[in-house]
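User: Could you check the structure of this?
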Amino acid sequence: MARLADYFVLVAFGPHPRGSGEGQGQILQRFPEKDWEDNPFPQGIELFCQPSGWQLCPERNPPTFFVAVLTDINSERHYCACLTFWEPAEPTQEAVCSEDAAGREEEAGKGGSGRLSPGTPGPPGQLFAPKTLVLVSRLDHVEVFRNSLGLIYTIHVEGLNVGLETVVGNLLTCIIPLAGGSQRTISLGAGDRQVIQTPLTDSLPISRCSVALLFRQLGITNVLSLFCAALTEHKVLFLSRSYQRLSEACRGLLALLFPLRYSFTYVPILPAQLLEVLSTPTPFIIGVNAAFQAETQELLDVIVADLDGGTVTVPECVHIPPLPEPLQSQTHSVLSMVLDPELELADLAFPPPTTSSSSLKMQDKELRAVFLRLFAQLLQGYRWCLHMVRIHPEPVIRFHKAAFLGQRGLVEDDFLMKVLEGMAFAGFVSERGVPYRPTDLFDELVAHEVARMRADESHPQRVLRHVKELAEQLYKNENPYPAVAMHKVQRPGEASHLRRAPRPFPRLDEGMVQWIVDQATAKMQGAPPAVKAERRTTVPSGPPMTAILERSSGLHGNSARRLEVVRNCISYVFEGKMLEAKKLLPAVLRALKGRAARRCLAQELHLHVQQNRAVLDHQQFDFVVRMMNCCLQDCTSLDEHGIAAALLPLVTAFCRKLSPGVTQFAYSCVQEHVVWSTPQFWEAMFYGDVQTHIRALYLEPAEDRDPSQGWEEPAEEERSALDVASEQRRLWPMLSREKQQELVQKEESTVFSQAIHYANRMSYLLLPLDSSKSRLLRERAGLGDLESASNSLVTSSMAGSVAESYDTESGFEDAETCDVAGAVVRFINRFVDKVCTESGVTSDHLKGLHVMVPDIVQMHIETLEAVHRESKRLPPIQKPKLLRPHLLPGEECVLDGLRVYLLPDGREEGSGGSGGGPAVLPAEGAVFLTTYRVIFTGMPTDPLVGEQVVVRSFPVAALTKEKRITVSTPVEQIPQDGLHLRSCTFQLLKMAFDEEVGSENAELFRKQLHKLRYPLDIRNTFAFTQGSAHTPGRPPRTAKDKGPSLRTLSRNLVKNAKKTMGRQHVTRKKYNPPSYEHRGQSPEDQEDEISVSEELEPGTLTPTSALKPSDRLTMSSLVERACCRDYQRLGLGTLSSSLSRAKSEPFRISPVNRMYAICRSYPGLLIVPQSVQDNALQRVSRCYRQNRFPVVCWRSGRSKAVLLRSGGLHGKGVVGLFKAQNTPSPGQSQADSSSLEQEKYLQAVVSSMPRYADTSGRNTLSGFSSVHMGGHVPSPRARVTTLSNPMAASASRRTAPRGKWGSVRASGRSGGLGGDVGSRLAGRDMRGPPQANGAPPDSGFPRPQRAALYIIGDKAQFKGVRPDPLQQWALVPIEMFEARQVKTSFKKLLKACVPGCQDFESGPTFLRSLEDSEWLTQIHKLLHVSVMVVELLDSGSSVLVSLEDGWDITTQVVSLVQLLSDPFYRTLEGFRLLVEKEWLSFGHRFSHRGAHTLAGQSSGFTPVFLQFLDCVHQVHLQFPMEFEFSPFYLKFLGYHHVSRRFRTFLLDSDYERIELGLLYEEKGERKGPQACRSVWEYVDRLSKRTPVFYNYVYAPEDTEVLRPYSNVSNLKVWDFYTEETLAQGPPYDWELAQVSPEPPEEERPDGGAPQSRRRVVWPCYDSRPRAQPDAISRLLEELQRLETELGRPPERWKDNWDRVKAAQRLEGRPDGRGTPSSLLVSSVPHHRRSLGVYLQEGPVGSTLSLSLDSDQSSGSTTSGSRQAARRSTSTLYSQFQTAESENRSYEGTLYKKGAFMKPWKARWFVLDKTKHQLRYYDHRVDTECKGVIDLAEVEAVVPGTPTMGAPKTVDEKAFFDVKTTRRVYNFCAQDVPSAQQWVDQIQSCLSDA
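Assistant: Sure, the predicted structure tokens are below.
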């Protein structure tokens, strides 16, 4: 029973003490005047009566009513019902207010208070003061309060004949029951009657209609947001103009939170004076009048719900976690069904007659029922996670949060995590966790209805039915007696507040009221106390919990088979069948990723523990520890699946004997896991064990069971700890006091003994085996910093940060003398303090524990020292032997093998993915760092894979990314440091260092790698240092007999270049050469450079002056360059020794740049128009970036159009030239004159084209005759491709264009470039009769309007330019990408092709990331532009490509154009020439783009050349018969242009190469075999031995122009990016790629016919082309093998191939004559083309007067003549070099006996009288000498005798011996005469000497 009202208060308006315009509330009277003992009078009531402030009002307002809630210090809520009415103000009150204050009050009165109807003003100037009647109660009966206060007001206003004192007295003495469903009729003595119903259970909240109103005002989504915000402890603020609405909204929100109670600040109506409360840091639910909305604007972390506007505003910085799915969506749909039942029927064709919707009160209960169901689903099974820590004297209960989250499958869920950590849930556990108490609706629901709710999930109607059932119960709880008599309470008449009140509210008689109260109190004291009989029962636990959403465990869905494997492996281990266990172990480690397998492992291991101890041998111990580690590595710090908990008893049970008296337990080997350092884990474990022991205390001995099995879930029939506790709580009151004391003592000592046990356990797992070290378990250095908090978030983040750099400050005060013991003691003490305080351990016991802990730790450290000492003596585990990699000649090891594990990355092949085959990764082996490569060699860790050697390597120079990582080793599953190395050759090494590799070694590896990747100087790279005896940094001297040395040559060149550049430096500051060119110069050079300011020497730039001898030498060297050879081939100009010009030639070779004075990045000789003087070129060059002015690089043999290249324009230049066509005045600046020179230069280019020159510069096309086509007559073979567009039709009207179309013009994907720009520009549309130069159209000949020269440039540089129709050139602005975009794109491509991690499905993700990289889009643009240029050139217009600086994209485009237009460049020789000319000579910045040195490190790797090769590859795919080289050749160049193995692709220009003395060093004579310095030389040597670079389907159609398709859909990803061979690493270093190279002097023993051995080829491991070569390669290999077996010197593969082709050609003729086959036809033009290479001097016409070499003239096959051409290239311009000439006096085959115990072998011997030596080779055409016998050492030549193994069929007299001072050589000729001849020749040689 309780009082209905505690206090009645009358509050009136009073003046403010500080005299401001505002008033304040004054308490006029309060009853009773003395405070009740059990309930003191609440302070601050006057503030809450008028929350907006006390103000006078100019009009009489109707009375208002609301209920404010005050919370006292004991968290008790007091309900203050306030009824306010207005009375005329007294004069003293009026005087307070000044005029302006009155205005302000009026505004606040209207807006702030939100009155119901406008008031009526009284007499003018009359003000009204508010007066409030307040009822204070601890009960929440709003309607009763409203009626009671209304009655008092009515009596006053209507002047009823009832004493107010009596009514107030009766109100204060009214006693009503709290709960139980009774009803009570009360009367206040004024003829009134009210019925009060009490709820059935007081634990359920009373909501009336508040929840339904809240949903009406805000809507479903907003209320759900507020619900989640309140549960996750955010700040919620309601705004409304109505105070009653604010109260109801807050009440409704609280009702939704049931069964959780809101325990933070709760103020439904906050007065204006207390608004600063809103900035409190704690969560709250507060209501504020909407008038103060402005004051709430600056609150940054408050969620504002505007009830009047229906909005909820969530600030950006606040994240409200949503309900876990599927609960969120289910709740939402059920709520909409309740609120809007019409929604389901809205779409029906025949809707049923409208059903009556629920009343508001009923709807309110239905909404609450939805949330009650939601909580039952969320918290289902929560009672299974309660730990009963104490039963007596009071229950102590803890909740195992991690287990709950783990079993519900919601570990990652943000919402539930926050709810469980919140204060509301803590209150829920302490209130509802009690096992013996009264139960309510929620307990029933969560225990018995869960199964029904799960079954109903998919049936909305059944859900709705359940909701309605629950709603009925909730409604019945609030209204147990629905049909009660109506209230009878008098109300004031209509508009009674407007009548003039007879008098103010009277002052009541305190004495009389007090007397009534005293009377009632006395009566109450006499009555017996009403004891509420609570029905207490055992709370049902309900079914065990299930996951909220059954998720399939993905990859590791643990099938019964996997669990079987785990069980078998463990039984093998304990039966001692180690070999069997070893086979199963990898499968077990994989299976242990799944939760079920980990549980299974723990259960199985438990079976093998007897009496808490299991002694194992070393191997068993290792296996068990390894499996435990694997289990624990996936445990989070919370251990939500209880794996660590299950293993905890085991790690102290399994042990091994190290020596007598020294035992090592498993815990010393499983410490490296974060779970052991998490306080929450230990607390949960401790409470779980305590519960087990407490339960055992009260169970009958028969029921008791082994406590060590406590981790298993109890069986159904066994009584749970909660049941036991409930029973004990029921019996407790009946026990005697002594018995109670005894039980309390027993429980306390149980907890105490467990605390000691856990202090021991924790010291086991926290103290490292080697406690002398300062690393307190890297992962868990968090121990030291957990002084303040035991928060798992802190722990894990600490552990994470320390794991990254544990050697800095291992998380402790002093890393040097790190006090491991101290840190562990502190950690254990904090744990002991917390659990003992919570479990009620006595303070004496606690003190004892604190004394004990340091001793326990110290004792354990002493034990560990012995264990550590003995464990060191154990023989180390046999690790696999390190496999040494094969090295190249000259390659040296920098760091010997560091043991590592190579881990699988995103490439599926290594793990046997898409390619098939077993998972060869992870592999265990070593990483080697050499001067050239990073190499991993090893074997798969999975023993079932087999003994495959895994090799993965890449050149150091290709490294693009190096990152430290921490990864788990595949076998031990221990976190280790690792490295992640990615290379631009598409290799990735993701390695974990073995534990034996110290961090110092790993760091040393990184430093050395960095040093090799970015050397200080280019001369320190492998290309320079390999196999060289000279010191790096000094270029080697060449062995030239005459002429200055290279060093002098370089110095001369540089010096002259500086002189010629001197003037440029001084006068034209604006066009300084860029700074990159000054790299690599010595300091003296730079100093010299600065001081050069003299005038240019007269005549330096005029070619007619006599050349100095050193210059002549330079010239001769320049003439040898590839450019010059190509210019001669194209007939672009000649260069005789006197530099006289052939006037008839339109172009000439100009030596103006021979000193690299005009442009350092250009070659020394350039093709310029004949008419341009050399001295004009310098002025022209100033208009272009980097001085790269337009020069000719190719001429079409048919249309005679030329291709030019240059850098982009500077600001002035063509742009100015187009904008202003004025004539130069005498005072023009130099820049203008440059522009003029430029215009003249372009005019000269146009005039140099024959078809334009003959019309005196006028651009007519009538000269398009066969004369200017070089006498070319279309042959019947030429194909005209007819395409369905006008272009093709018009094309056929002109001379037939020869060409292959792979592309009907690309789509307009390359921005800025129209779809058919090429054809339009090339004049293929015949629309424009007027001519380009403005001449009248010639009616007889319809000519396309076409410019003579097209300038292709960046869009940006042509902005605002309007081409003049009189000009003969046109601008083609295009949008191309920049080099930095290439870099970014390549990075993304690299990530797509070689991802670093394994965690995604390769399909769509690979394609998506490929698309994101935009690499193929860039290739598309390049091909598109190139095809356009090809079109233009083919149509007879010349093209100048002028993009960026002229060395990246320009180079790509011009190279592609030449490749597509000229078949010569599609041969091996031609492609080499193309690369040497366009990429090397024209200064592509290989070193800069490849970041070759430390200086270029920041610029990163930009693969411009690789992109070009990719384009070539795309063309090769579309036209496979047009290329002489194979796709492997492109990959080979792609690999080696970054590998820095050869010097070819080093440095940025010819100038830099000369400065280092590189350019001409190859010409020097070599002594003995030497490593190739040039990639071309290497390709030549290799081509002689193997056809790997040759394309067998090469059958070119001559003079074909290729036009590839360039749409992205037509492009393929180059397999260079994706393929990998783990058998021997990248196949591009040919010497290493040979699987078993034969020793030079050994011969395989004859085993007769080769046995056919079946070989398994794994696509994920072997190289498929190597394992299964194509038919032709296989036949050639077979031929070579047979030749070797027959003892014949093998012939070159090329000769064999040529013979086969010749034979095929003869078979093609039926009678030996007739039409030759296509092979022969296609070979004819090649004679012409390859013969041009022989030219040394003289006019082009002399081509036909030359004949082939005699030895080649017999076979006139295509490739034969080309081979001859290629071989004779080296003799080109032989007068400029001293080439080594082969002096062969006599040669033939001899058998030679090897050294001691070696067999006889046939060799090709050459007697050289000039060099006085006898050399021998493998076969006749071999160029590499295998050995030399110096004739100076020969003493005698005598007849010999056959020895063992000699050829059987040879006559004995054919044997002879050559005795030298060192040894005797045994020879055997094929017959006696030839033996005699050899002896005579050698004798004559000796006698000559």
